[in-house]
Amino acid sequence: MPISDQFRDDLIAAIPGLRAFGFSLTSRSHRADDLVQETLMKAWKHHDSFQEGTNLKAWLYTILRNEFYSQLRKRRREVEDADGHYSSRVAVQAEQHGHLDMADLKTALQQLPEDQREAIILVGASGFSYEEAATICNVAIGTIKSRVNRARRKLGEILQLDSANEYYPDAHLHGVSTASVSTDE
Amino acid sequence: MTEKRRSNAKMPGDHSKVTPVNIPQSRPVQATIAMQDLLGDKLRAYYNEVVREPVPDRFDKLLKELEARSNPKKPG
Q1: What is the DSSP letter of B15?
Q2: Global pTM?
Q3: pLDDT per residue as tens digits for the range A141-181
Q4: Which of A30, A112, A121, A184 could be bridged to A116 by S-S, CB 3.0 to 4.6 A?
Q5: Which residue of A1, A6, A9, A15 is the best one to mutate when testing the B interface, meaning the one whose CB has the most B CBs within 10 A?
Q6: Model ipTM value
Q7: Closest-CA residue to A123 (of A133, A115, A114)
Q8: Nearest Cβ partner of A152 from B36, B67, B71?
Q9: B39 contacts in A (CB within 8 Å)?
């Protein structure tokens, strides 16, 4: 079956989101782009297994996620081989990306277990429903919900969002409130 | 001393004011919601920062390659 222009255009349109998902999982730009490249190649090769009219975005995110885990397993095997034991490596040096606030969030995300990280990103940032996220991660909806809740709690603790709220109850609105102060000059 | 204190405590006409107390459950619930909003904003900002980046050339090249491979001799 030939590949339709529509399919190609949809792949192109999905690239920015896939890069963001890849970056959220790996916290490394080049690794994210390698994941996206693999994803596009696999999607192209297996385009026959995609059912037209179903959710292409979710299909592509599933491919990227599977690729991420297969690379992770490979990486861990290599670490195991080299060290004789498995060592969990949390992102030690965070690549600078964006302002300080974002760097904090990035470091915090890396402290979450992969399953919670992907769940909170898919639901909280990529805009997938719990149901779609459950399909992408191949688990029950309830599992996704509890992972999202645990991730939220943990990120809130790490970023100390609860204490920030004590002092700046409208912190997330500060842009609005300052913008509303205007003079007639 | 103790007697004095006791008598103070029993002063007639001392209707100690009842301090208005915040509705107990609403505060933590509100804080949780505010925290989730704040976290949601942060997550989306973090994610969208990458979404808005220009797409690297390698992907344009890759798709052209893939297309060329699947249509080796496109009649033109």
Answers
A1: -
A2: 0.74
A3: 999 999 999 999 999 999 988 655 444 444 444 444 433 34
A4: A112
A5: A15
A6: 0.77
A7: A133
A8: B36
A9: 124, 152, 155-156, 159, 161
